[in-house]
From TrEMBL:
Protein name as catalogued: TonB-dependent receptor plug domain-containing protein
Keywords linked to the UniProt accession: Cell outer membrane, Membrane, Signal, Transmembrane, Transmembrane beta strand, Transport
Signal peptide span: 1-22
Any Pfam family: CarbopepD_reg_2
InterPro entries assigned: Beta-barrel_TonB_sf, CarboxyPept-like_regulatory, Plug_dom, Plug_dom_sf, TonB-dep_OMP_SusC/RagA, TonB-dep_OMP_SusC/RagA_CS, TonB-dep_rcpt-like
GO CC terms: cell outer membrane
Family label: Belongs to the TonB-dependent receptor family.
Length: 1010
């Protein structure tokens, strides 16, 4: 009987095993994007059960073992994750949709999803950055991220941008975010050496829950950059991206005069060449030079990127080579850049060990204009472009010596600034201002799973930058002759400089990640981090060069130095060496319950080299939480696909309390002495800096409440955040008695607050197989005010900081207009009356500042059967600046030596008493420098970017060697709506004077995949 039972049991067991195997089968398919193009490297994973996963091959195909009713999860960077339930069919073709608000969210040292993130973070993908004709990827982000204000105040190729996140958090210290590229924290960087096309994703971390884990460096937010990598078990993929661009000067509204207009004005004023000309001579004057054409040009740019991606079972690789060449709109300005990057990822057969390496080598060479932003009429080329008299001919210039003879002679224009455009032609032809930069970034990461739940990891990252500069004033140039000393035979100078900056960051971590039961998950990590940075620079200037043998940059033409050499030719030599460092230990704990609730805690201790031992350590912390309301039963059947409430509060620190660089103020706690003059002007050592051993970190406390939502089948998606950020222990000067040898001392004394609201929305207006249309928009409001100051207010001349007021609000005399009785300027005094002779006591707080209150962007993406059109607008509102360029063009004092605006044609006369332009001979010009006469609204709306192109469908390319093909046209800074009259309303400055304007850029491009 027992034997019979055993036989029956065995038969039933075999039957069930056979049934189970019959239910498991091989499923195949192809994964494509909305255009029908195959997507290699998509991760296809069995949900639950074995957890088996594969990746799609080069053609987007996959094959995987799975049972009926099990689910397959398809995931890929920048695409929405899709889940398919396996039924009777053996083939599943899946089309992944782009994720505008990416589901994958990078939070400092961990990666999560949008639904399970507790913090305020905005993610930008490669789609936004790739193919844009910008040397700096930061410039592509303007108007894309709510609360992120990016201003590029210079069109110089490779110029830096100013980046402010959620308002200014410091008065004298660093105000820009920390950048982390593949695990390497970087100080403020111009990023001209980083190839934007290598970037896979960029995450902007905003609130304390996201940034406090960076402690002393997270005060102003954090921007985490991840570069591209290869996929395992993926064949070789080759991609080429090329663009050709043309740059043009933006328009301005200064209404500059032509020759006849200027000569007529000079005739009326009795000044300059026009003073003695008859009207017929003026009408027949032939020369009419547009100095814009002599100083500016249409620049040509090209960008070529070749990338190779491949992967085997345990090793994958991404390699890119790039060449970027951009001509600036100012003559002789340019940037050339060469890039090489290799990112490798590896893993062991058992999956316990994985590692990655990232190496990038970048070399750039740039040529810059000199003395931008100054009124140097013989050096800054923008002065000549703006102020050059049109009746001068560029043919008047032949060489520096001839121009010097004109200037010192008795002929036309001698001894005046009238010849300044010719001086600037000379410096453009003879001057050299070049910089060569070598930048290398490397990163090594490794992780080992000690158990299924416990992982030990380490990251070593290094950043090396070398800058070599060359500045030459040619011995045959005009400036060399005009500034020659008596008895000086050899003129000109050459300055060569070398700066080396090396930083290393070592991070070691232990992570515990475990799920208890079905609903409880703990993700906890402990870290130690060590950062060290070294800077060294050297500069040598050779005064006096032999023009017969001089060649810029190679040392030829130097004057030999010995005991008989004239002191004129003694070289000037300088050097510096600075070290900075940090040591930190910190930890984080994240708890999740059934993907409905989440709680996060972080704490960090930092030690900085900058402060004395008593204040060396700083402690920073945060707590954050979320509630996924859409997961609750009472939300079943609602229009919400996602509804999440989150909040955070915590602190971060700022150790860069003096300027942007980590190297500034290395000895602020020490009293330093310098050589100077003492009693009876005798040589002596004097107090150069009065140390303060109580100096410490600036601490930022920030609270944030946010809502993330998706409704109507996720057609409408968005985020709303409300925040308050308060900086305590502001680094500022405090007054001292002169008995201390100094009138002031730096101390932590003050508090500054930023409060604001941010909104980000995206809506799929149309979404069919052939046609998609998505509109997006974002906006932010930020209020900035002082809570505490050492003396209640700080007067900075035309700006003032006062408790209750915003940062650097303008403090000026109210300008009323032109006095109809006299033609002079008219101002309002402190008593409310009118006066032509105000004083500083008549200044008033305006509530206006160059720090904007409103900013954001909006746009749309349309795609019809492979044809696409994209447009992005950005806007900034309630921002004010002084227009010093306009002041110069309206100033009648320089009639006869500089060009003017046609605004002066409506100047006050006895027959034209009611006007906005004073008389040509008005006598109180100096008072308008401290008034709001030239304070202008610089708000704008700009068509930042537009692109139109065609992506060839996969079926069209089926019989070609191409896996993908796209052609497009795009334009940047195409049009700006603004009241600002200058070249560019976008600027981080409080005033504009002879700055390098940002250009319009028109490009055609081609993207090819093999």
């Amino acid at each position: 009987m027992k034997s019979k039972f055993t036989w029956i049991f065995t038969l039933l067991l075999a039957f069930f095993i056979q049934f189970a195997f019959a239910q498991e089968k091989t499923v195949t398919g192809t994964v494509t994007d909305p255009t029908g193009m195959s997507i290699p490297g998509v991760n296809v994973k069995v949900v639950g059960g074995s957890g088996q996963s594969v990746q799609t091959d080069f053609d987007g195909n996959f094959s995987i073992q799975v049972s009926v009713n099990q689910k397959l999860e398809f995931s890929f960077v920048s695409m929405k994750t899709q889940i398919v339930t396996v039924g009777a069919s053996g083939k599943y073709n899946v089309q992944l949709q782009p994720s505008d608000l990416d589901e994958v969210v990078v939070e400092a040292f961990r990666t999560t999803t949008r639904a399970t993130s507790n913090v305020a973070v905005t993610t930008i993908t490669a789609k936004t950055i790739e193919g844009r004709p910008n040397a700096n990827f930061i410039q592509t982000l303007q108007g894309q991220v709510p609360g992120l204000n990016i201003t590029t105040g210079s069109g110089q190729p490779g110029a830096n941008s100013t980046v402010i996140l959620r308002g200014y958090g410091s008065v004298n210290g660093n105000v820009e975010p920390l950048y982390v590229i593949d695990g390497m924290p970087l100080n403020v960087d111009n990023f001209r050496s980083l190839n934007p096309n290598d970037i896979e994703s960029l995450s902007v971390l905003k609130d304390a829950g996201a940034t406090s884990i960076y402690g002393n460096r997270g005060a102003n937010g954090v921007i985490v950059v991840k570069t591209k990598k290869g996929s395992f078990e993926s064949p070789l993929r080759i991609k080429y991206l090329g663009t050709t661009s043309f740059t043009r000067l933006q328009d301005n509204k200064y209404n500059k005069m032509n020759s006849r207009q200027l000569l007529s004005l000079e005739n009326r004023a009795g000044k300059g060449l026009g003073a003695t000309l008859t009207q017929d001579e003026i009408n027949n004057y032939a020369t009419d030079t547009d100095w814009y054409d002599q100083i500016f040009r249409t620049g040509h740019s090209q960008n070529h990127v070749l990338s190779l991606t491949s992967g085997g079972k345990n090793l994958s690789s991404f390699t890119s080579i790039g060449y970027f060449d951009q001509e600036g709109v100012v003559a002789k300005t340019s940037l050339q850049r060469f890039n090489f990057r290799n990112n490798m990822n590896g893993k062991s057969n058992n999956g316990k060990f994985d590692y990655s390496t990232a190496v990038t080598i970048n070399y750039s060479k740039r040529s810059e204009a000199s003395n931008l932003g100054t009124g140097a009429v013989n050096i800054n080329p923008l002065v000549g472009a703006n102020n050059g008299a049109p009746y001068l001919s560029p043919d008047m210039y032949t060489n520096g010596l001839d121009l010097y003879n004109q200037y010192t002679g008795t002929g036309f224009g001698s001894g005046t600034l009238l010849l300044s455009p010719l001086m600037l032609m000379d410096i453009l032809k003879t001057g050299t201002n070049e910089f060569n930069e070598l930048k290398m970034l490397s990163n090594f990461q490794a992780n080992y799973k000690l158990t299924d739940d416990l992982t030990l990891g380490t990251t070593f990252a290094a950043d090396y930058t070398q800058n070599v500069g060359l500045r030459v004033q040619d011995p045959r140039s005009f400036n060399s002759y005009v500034f020659r000393n008596s008895g000086e035979d050899y003129l000109g100078f050459q300055t060569e400089s070398l700066a080396q900056d090396f930083s290393a960051n070592i991070n070691t971590r232990l992570n515990y990640n475990h799920t208890f039961g079905e609903n409880h998950n703990i993700d906890a990590s402990l870290f130690t981090e060590y950062y060290k940075s070294h800077f060294k620079s050297f500069s040598a200037t050779q005064n006096g060069l032999n023009p017969k043998v001089f060649v810029p940059g190679n040392g030829a033409g130097y004057i030999g130095f010995n005991s008989d050499t004239s002191p004129f030719y003694v070289p000037d030599v300088s050097s510096s060496k600075i070290t900075a460092g940090l040591f930190s230990y910190f930890g984080s704990v994240n708890y999740s319950y059934a993907d409905r609730f989440g709680l996060g805690l972080t704490a960090r201790r930092d030690a900085s080299y900058r402060f004395s031992e008593t204040n060396r350590w700083g402690t920073f912390w945060s707590v954050d939480a979320r509630w996924n309301i859409d997961r609750e039963k009472f939300m079943e059947g609602s229009v919400f696909n996602m509804l999440k409430l989150r909040g955070s509060y915590g602190t971060t620190g700022n150790q860069n309390i003096s300027g942007q660089s980590i190297y500034n103020l290395p000895n602020g706690s020490r009293t330093l002495f310098a050589s100077g003059s003492g009693y009876a002007n005798l040589p002596a050592y004097v107090v150069g800096q009065l140390g303060n051993s109580d100096l410490k970190w600036e601490t930022i406390a920030q609270g944030d409440i946010g809502v993330d939502f998706e409704v109507f089948d996720s057609k409408l998606r968005g985020t709303v955040d409300v925040y308050r950020k308060t900086t305590k222990d502001l680094y500022q000067t405090s007054p001292l008695s002169a008995i201390n040898g100094q009138f002031s001392q730096f101390a932590n004394n003050g508090s500054l607050r930023n409060s604001g609201v941010e909104l980000l929305v995206s809506y799929d207006v149309i979404k069919t197989t052939d046609f998609t249309l998505t509109v997006t928009g974002n906006g932010s409001y930020n209020k900035n005010e002082f809570v505490k100051l050492p003396t209640g207010s700080v007067d900075n001349g035309t700006a003032i900081n006062v408790v209750g007021g915003q940062l650097n609000q303008y403090y000026v005399i109210p300008y009323v207009g032109v006095n109809p009785a006299t033609g002079n300027l008219l101002f309002r005094n402190a008593e409310g009356g009118l006066t032509e002779t105000p004083d500083n006591g008549d200044r008033r707080m305006t509530g206006k500042s160059y720090v904007p209150k409103y900013q954001g962007g909006f746009g749309f993406d349309a795609n019809y059967k492979g044809f696409y059109l994209t447009a992005q607008f950005s806007y900034v509102q309630d921002v004010w600046r002084f227009d010093t360029d306009l002041d110069g063009l309206q100033n009648p004092a320089s009639i006869g030596v500089q060009n003017k605006s046609t605004d002066l044609d409506r100047a006050w006369t006895p027959d034209n008493r009611y006007t906005d332009i004073p008389s040509l001979g008005f006598t109180n010009k100096g008072f308008d420098f401290s008034s709001d006469r030239y304070l202008r609204d610089a708000s704008y709306v700009r068509l930042r970017y537009t692109s139109i192109g065609y992506t060839f469908p996969a079926k069209t390319l089926a019989k070609t060697p191409f896996a993908g093909l796209k052609a497009y046209f795009q334009a940047e800074n195409l049009y700006t709506w603004t009241k600002w009259r200058g070249w560019d309303a976008e600027s981080p400055r409080s005033e504009d004077a002879y700055q390098y304007p940002t250009p319009k850029i028109f490009s055609v491009g081609l993207e090819v995949q093999l």
